[in-house]
Design brief:
Largest sheet: 3 strands, antiparallel
Distance between the termini: 63 Å
Order of helices and strands: HHHHEHEEHHHHHHHHHHHEE
Low-confidence stretches: 128-146, 150-157
Number of helices: 16
Radius of gyration: 26 Å
Helix content: 55-70%
Strand order of the largest sheet: 3-4-5
Shape: globular
Mean pLDDT: 80
Structural class: mainly alpha
Number of strands: 5
Length: about 450
């Protein structure tokens, strides 16, 4: 009997640690697995390449300095240390536990666990991380330009400022959300008790969640266009796969913003888009900024024709298919143990369809807003003397797409809006904070 109780106690203590490790492992590997799905579904890729990529992703979540270990140490320490402390002090009859002492012990245990977990997370990896090439340009803003020029660069890279930045911002965002919810609930109770609750106040939380996501998405998309080094490599890659846009077109917009791609002048940038014209069968002069002002929208549509409306519909359908292939299997797996399989499958299909529609609407709204700003609506509202075509293509049209695409969150359910908004907000905040610092001086950020 005593042995069975001891085993039950051990299982009870191990369960939260194992669960935390498993959730941390899934949080680390699931986005990478989803990003790997297009490669796994390709028929022109060998099984060996697919297996190596899959094994590399699965092994990436294992190690002392991984997020999964961080979660296990944090939860394990916060669970075991108070129990160990009270078992030791129970031997001494002079120690009297109170509610205050219990809270202090739990706080100290959580603090020590967090300190140990953060040190493990920020521990240096054994892999050589002192150089960077154009094949791994996640922190090198110049690497993108070198890739189009056919060059391969290699230079020293500053130390990471810390691997816990995203986690810290996530916790801060969640804490701010909780505080805001508590304050709003108090305001709501007071207003309703006085009979002054209005329709505007009832809609405010819904608009606030959508506004938070729209603002965060605008920052992330702007960073993806003009400062991709500020985004995590996996995040940037996933956006690129969902956007399905030719890299040469993105590079042309970046060069326009840097003042290298100029309409009406021969600055040596024509070969970039001329090669794209040859690949798609367009007139070569379309790619020459000295001859064609501005870039035709048909180049932005990338083979969908000259109609901006049809391009938006086409983008929606392609993005919906892309998202559904990812969301539907995931939704079914989450409900595989349901006692009512028919109801669970119907709900999985409904949720997957709704989430896929949101993502498809996000992408199509971005592209259509770009077209509206640069050719369809913007030049008609604002004179070309006031806002030139180069001004539209050097940032204004992308800014219009960034501002509009996030409002597609209104297609999602109300609970999901808040969840998605609080997930994207830390990513947006991380884009304005430097991730690397020069080794010679910790005061100067590497941007």
């Amino acid at each position: 009997m005593a042995l069975s109780r001891q085993r039950a106690l051990d299982a009870h203590l191990l369960e939260p640690v194992l669960r935390a490790y498993g959730l941390g492992y899934l949080a680390l590997t699931t986005p990478r697995l989803l990003g790997c799905l297009p490669l796994l579904l390709k028929n022109d890729t060998g099984y060996r390449v697919k297996l190596e990529r899959l094994c590399r992703i699965l092994l990436s979540g294992l190690g002392l300095n991984k997020f999964s270990t961080f979660c296990a140490v944090l939860v394990g320490g916060a669970t075991w240390l108070p129990l160990l402390f009270f078992r030791i002090t129970s031997v001494h009859s002079s120690f009297r536990s109170s509610l205050r002492s219990v809270r202090i012990v739990r706080f100290v245990s959580a603090f020590v666990s967090a300190w140990a977990a953060f040190n493990l997370l920020n521990r240096k990896s054994r892999k050589n991380d002192t150089t960077i090439t154009d094949s791994a340009r996640d922190e090198d803003p110049k690497g993108e330009e070198d890739r189009f020029n056919g060059l391969k660069t290699e230079r020293l890279r500053p130390e990471l400022s810390g691997r816990s930045l995203d986690f810290t911002l996530f916790s801060l965002t969640r804490a701010a959300g909780v505080i805001a919810a508590i304050a709003w609930n108090g305001w709501e109770k007071r207003r309703k008790s006085r009979g002054r609750w209005s329709r505007t106040e009832e809609l405010a939380p819904r608009i606030a969640d959508a506004g938070l996501f729209a603002g965060s998405a605008a920052v992330v998309m702007w960073a993806w266009f003009y400062s991709p080094e500020r985004l995590p490599r996996s995040y940037e890659k996933w956006i690129g796969e969902a956007a399905q846009v030719d890299d040469r077109l993105i590079e042309a917009l970046r060069r326009a913003r840097r003042g290298e791609f100029i309409y009406g002048k021969d600055t040596g940038q024509a070969p970039l888009l001329e090669s794209m014209c040859k690949d798609y069968g367009w007139p070569v002069e379309w790619g020459d900024p000295a001859a064609t002002v501005p870039i035709p929208c048909e180049m932005v549509h990338m083979g969908c024709g000259s109609s901006c409306e049809w391009h938006a519909v086409s983008r929606f359908m392609r993005s919906f298919k892309f998202a559904l292939l990812t969301n539907l299997p995931l939704q079914v797996l989450l409900r595989v143990r349901s006692k009512q399989p028919v109801v669970a499958i119907n709900r999985a299909i409904r949720d997957a369809t709704r989430s896929s529609s949101f993502l498809a609407l996000f992408i199509s709204m971005f592209y259509y807003s770009v077209c509206l700003a640069r050719t369809r609506l913007g030049p008609k509202l604002l004179s070309s003397k006031l806002v030139t075509p180069l001004m539209w293509d050097s940032g204004l049209c992308v800014g219009a797409g960034c501002l509009m695409c996030g409002w597609s969150i209104l297609a999602e359910s109300i609970p999901r809006r808040q969840e998605i908004a609080l997930f994207v907000a830390p990513r947006a905040a991380a884009t304005v904070l430097p991730r690397r610092y020069d080794r010679k001086s910790n005061k100067a950020p590497y941007i």
